[in-house]
Amino acid sequence: MAIPRPGKPVRGSQSGAPIMAVFDLLGRRWAMGIIWNLSRGAASFRALQGYCETISPSILNSRLKDLREAGLIELVSDGYQLTAMGEKLFQLLKPFGDWAIHWAKSVSDDDPARWDNYRTRKD
């Protein structure tokens, strides 16, 4: 399966609007989780499997291929890392992580302090 391409029909858009192509790509199982985990720095295949907990090796391999083809990650000597474009995307996603913690505190029955462990990396 090829990555979604702007200008071609994608999930949610027959015209292939660029935002819909990105949403289609990022909506694939584990795509955002891989990007989120690579924001820590380069990671090997095995390390990514550990970070993503329940991901199967075949899905991880497939998502890494997709994200490489999309120019968001690259293979380096340490494993995989975000490209400049991938880092830019992470910087856009980071505020959603902060918002999600605020949201979790407002709807969860758990101790609100629990969610503080989910803060994104500090720049």
TrEMBL record:
Keywords: DNA-binding, Transcription, Transcription regulation
The keyword Transcription belongs to this UniProt entry's keyword annotation: yes
InterPro entries named in the record: ArsR-like_HTH, HTH_HxlR, WH-like_DNA-bd_sf, WH_DNA-bd_sf
Domain (HTH hxlR-type) ranges: 17-108
One Pfam family in the UniProt entry: HxlR
PROSITE patterns for this protein: HTH_HXLR
Keyword Transcription regulation assigned: yes
Domain of life of the native organism: Bacteria
CDD domains, sorted: HTH_ARSR
A biological process from GO: regulation of DNA-templated transcription
A GO molecular function held by the record: DNA binding
PANTHER family, per database record: HTH-TYPE TRANSCRIPTIONAL REGULATOR YODB (PTHR33204:SF37), TRANSCRIPTIONAL REGULATOR, MARR FAMILY (PTHR33204)
Name under which the protein is recorded: Transcriptional regulator, HxlR family
Protein source organism: Desulfopila aestuarii DSM 18488
